[in-house]
Amino acid sequence: MFDLLISRRSRVPYHVSLLRLFSAVLIAALLVIGLSGFSAFAAPHSTVDIQILNVSDWHGQLDPINGVGGAAAISSYWQADRQANPNTLTLTAGDAYGASPPLSGFFNEEPAVLAMNLMGFDADTFGNHNFDKGIAHLQQMIDLANFQYVSANLKNRDDNLTGVKDYEIFEVGGVKVAVIGITNPEAPNLVFPGNFGTIEPTDPIPAANKAKARAKAEGAKVFIAITHLGVTGFDPVTGAASGPLIDFANNVGGFDLIFGDHTDVQYSGIHNNALVVENRSKGLTYSKSVLTVDAQNGRIVNRVNTFVTPLASAVTPDPAIVALLEPYRAALAVAFDEPIGVATDLFPRGGNIERRGEVAIGNLVADAIRLRYGTQLALTNGGGIRAPLPSSYTPVDTTLRRTAAPYVIGPPFDIVIGDVFAVLPFGNSVVTRTVTGAQLWAALENGVSQINAADCSGTDGRFPQISGFKFTFQCSLPPGSRVLSVAFPDDTPIPADSTTYTFATNDFINNGGDFYAMLADGQGTTREVMFDVVVEYIQSLGTITPTVEGRITKVP
C-alpha cells in the first residue's frame, strides 16, 4: 500500500524513487565524512619535473670557442641547473671525443673523458668518431668513464667491448627513466676499415623498440633515446625538418624524448608525440629539457625545451676541471705553441660550410698535399677538416693575435702548430697515386651525392675539397649524375675516360672511407702525415690569405 501511495502521488516509477532515496543517503554520508575527505579523494596525482641536460657532438671541446662553451664553463652552468632541480639526468649522444682539439686529441682523448666525469654525465652512446682509434682504444675510454655507455643496435657488441648496455634505467624523482642508445648505421664507413672489429650496426628503429619493450618490462615509465642521428635539412617552403633523426622519431613507438647528434644543427620539435632535440656541436649550445611526469603512472603531463648558449664569461669556471687540465696544457705548450705563420684573415670552418662548397681552409689543405708531391690533382674530404684558422687552441703567449680574449684581437692572426693539429686531428697520411678520369668523376659524384637537392645545403663529411682542377655540379639532379663538368684551371677538360692523372689524397679516402669505394683498389704510396705537410706548407709561405677561387661551382 505504501508503494502504491508513492506511485500515485508522484507519478514516478518505483525504481526511480528508490534511486533518489539512495542518492540522498549517499550525499548525507559524504557530508558526515566531510568535504576535506572528499577533496582528498578527488585530488590529482602528484607530478615530478625531470630535467635533462644535453650536449651534441662535443668532440672533446675542452676550451671555449670564441668565448662560448668549454668544459669548465659548461660544468658551472650544469651545477647551477642541478641545484635548481636535483631531479636531473645529463646525457650526450656520441662523438663526445674523436676529431678533438689538441688538448684532448694529443693525449689519447683521456682529458675529455676525465672532464666528462667531473661534468657529471650519466650516459653516452657511440658515434662514428668514438671508433677513430679502434676497438682497443674505445675500451680504454669506456673503462675510464664513470658514466654508462649504451647502444642497442650493435650486433656482436659484447664480443668486442665490455661494460656497454642496450639501455640504462635511472630512478629520477621516484620515476624510473630508461635511456636507450643508438649508433648511426653508416658509422663503419666513416672510419678506417677494421676500426669496428666485428661490430655491425643494425637498423635503429627495431633495435630501439625492442630495447624499450624490455625496459618497460623492468618497470621503466619514461623513455629517452640518445641517438647519433641528426637533422640534415629543412624544407625551403614549410621549414619542416628532415634527416635520419626525424625518420627515427617518426617510426619508433612510445618514446617521450629523443636526442639527436652528428650534424651540428639546432632543432627542437614534436614528432610522433616525442620531444626531439639536437644541439649545435662542440658545446656552442646545450639543451635543458624538462618533462613533467605523473609520478604514479609515468604519463607525460608537459614537456619543454630551452637552448642555452653557455658564455664562458658569465660564470666562474669549475675549478676542478681547471685543475685537471693544467698539466695537459703545460705539456701541450711545449709541442704546439710555436708560431709558424700569419693569416691575413680568418680561414672559416663550421656550420657545415666545408661540407657543401668550396672553402679557403679546404683549398689550403688540398694545395699543401698536391704541391708537396707535385701531383696534378688533389682531393680531401671536408669532414676531415675540423677547425678554422686560427682555431680554438689556446697558446700560453697572450700577446699573440687571435680571435678572442685574453689574446690581442686580430686580424691579422698568428698561426701556431696547435692550430694545424686542430684542423687535422686524425693523423691521416697523404697517399699519392694515379687515377683515371672515370675514377675522378666517380669520386666527385660520391662527394656531392648527399647535397640537398632543394637548397644545395649539406652536412655530409664526404664533400670534396680540391686542388689542381675545378668542377661544376647541379644539386637538383639525381645523385650519381650531378657532375656537369671537370677541367683543369685553364679549362682543359678532364673527361670521364681511361686517361690517367697523378693524384694526392689522404689514406682514409684511399681506403674507401666516406664511401669513396672507387679509390679502394689497393693502389697508392703512403707518404707523410698530412698534419706535418700542412705545417711545413704554411711555414714556407709565411703569410697566408683565405681565398676562394671558384674551384667548385654549384648549380641549383
Explain the overall architecture.
This protein is of the alpha/beta class. The chain has three domains: 2-42; 47-314, Metallo-dependent phosphatases (Purple Acid Phosphatase, chain A, domain 2), CATH 3.60.21.10; 339-555, Alpha-Beta Complex (5'-nucleotidase,  domain 2), CATH 3.90.780.10. It is built from 16 helices and 30 strands. The strands form nine sheets. A six-stranded mixed beta sheet has the order 7-8-10-13-15-14, covered by helices on one side. Strands 24-19-27-23-28 form a five-stranded mixed beta sheet. Strand 14 (267-271) and strand 15 form a beta hairpin. Helix 4 runs parallel beside helix 6. The longest helix has 20 residues, at 14-33. The termini are far apart.
Amount of helix: 25-40%
What is the CA-atom radius of gyration, in angstroms?
Answer: 29 Å
CATH class of the largest domain, named Alpha Beta
CATH level-four homologous superfamily name of the largest domain: Metallo-dependent phosphatases
Number of strands: 30
- The CATH architecture of the largest domain is 4-Layer Sandwich
Q: Largest sheet, order of strands side by side?
A: 7-8-10-13-15-14
Largest sheet: 6 strands, mixed
- Low-confidence stretches are 1-43
Structural class: alpha/beta
Please, how many domains?
3
Number of helices: 16
Annotated CATH topology of the largest domain: Purple Acid Phosphatase, chain A, domain 2
Distance between the termini: 95 Å
Net shape: globular
Share in β-strands: 15-25%
- The averaged pLDDT comes out at 93
